[in-house]
Amino acid sequence: MKFSLLSALVANALSVSAGTILWDGRFNDLTSSTDLNKWSWGNQVGPYQYYIHGSSPVTAYVNLSPDYKNPADTGSRQGAKITLDNTAYWNGQNMRRTELIPQTTAAINKGKVYYHFSLMRKDTNAPATTREHQIAFFESHFTELKSGWLSGAPGVSDTKLRWCVSGNTQWSTEWEANVWHNVAYEIDFNANTVGFWHSTGSEPLAQKVAPISASTSSNGADWHVGVLELPRSGYPDTTEDYYWSGVYIESGSLTTSVAGPGSGPGGSSSSTSSTTKTVSSTTLSTSTTTTTKAQSTSTTSTAPSTSTQPSGCTASHWSQCDGINYTGCKTCASGFTCKYINDWFSQCL
């Protein structure tokens, strides 16, 4: 009997945690979102860099609660609600942005690694379907989720959640309210490939797209846990909320259980009142099938000037340096070049 119980515990532990955590962003070490204010370029502490946000206090853009996590994610004590409101403009840009970046020196951009997170929306403060949203993206946009109407696409709105590689949709599903989408990006930085794992609710991750070729460029400090919304004329800002859970990066074998590493055999987190449901996903069977092609986001040409630069102004690394209606600094700091991302946005890289 004792042997059977021990075997069951071992089997459960192995099924929950299969890999080695390189960076843990599950908000377990934060008492509230105000802890993010402790981080600065001169005091790089905590699990996240916090500098891409609007001008209001941190609680306007990031809030933590057990009610904000996937109930099946028992490895997380709480989840995060990340918000875009009418003040969420960073550093003079014309795009709304609220993003957190891993604070770590671990090799999250080496070898084969898995970037985990769960994402959910509600009908209250739902993301607009009439604007493109870039979610959980890298600076070079070699892989990311997208929602809403894709820039340059026909039509007016789009209700799908998409996984994209270099701007091309490789998987998509209807983004319904109160459904937790559990995701792992399978990234091989040596082989320059990226694959996609997904499930909903409490279901274990399953491979939806096998690894395909991608320009897997990352300096280890450019994965954005959050959202960037591209502007679109004629569509006013509305408040939007995005719910995040189970954010971590691992190497070795993939953890497919949504409970996550460190959750224990029966789970350790308190239950929540969140409503969840499971939906079927639409997948693309081969890497050569593309449902929608967004405007290119990986070209490295310099953007044409669209406005006059303020005098004596220099844009720092990662900052915007050009784009339609942009009026901020257009000269990048020494060592960086203004690179075209899209018509609305160029960046010092």
TrEMBL record:
Q: Which InterPro entries match?
A: CBD, CBD_sf, GH131_N
Task: Provide the residue span(s) of the region labelled Disordered.
Answer: 258-312
Among SUPFAM superfamilies, the record links this protein to:
Cellulose-binding domain (SSF57180)
Judging by the UniProt lineage, the source's domain of life is Eukaryota
Residue ranges with Low complexity bias: 268-312
Signal peptide as annotated in the record:
1-18
Q: Has UniProt tagged this entry with the keyword Signal?
A: yes
Domain CBM1, first and last residues per copy: 313-349
Q: Gene3D superfamilies per the record?
A: 2.60.120.1160
Xref: Pfam families: CBM_1, GH131_N
GO BP term (any one): polysaccharide catabolic process
Single GO cellular component term: extracellular region
What GO molecular function annotation could you give as one example from this UniProt entry?
cellulose binding
Q: Which SMART domains match?
A: fCBD
Keyword list (alphabetical) reads: Carbohydrate metabolism, Polysaccharide degradation, Signal
How is this protein named in the record? Answer: Carbohydrate-binding module family 1 protein
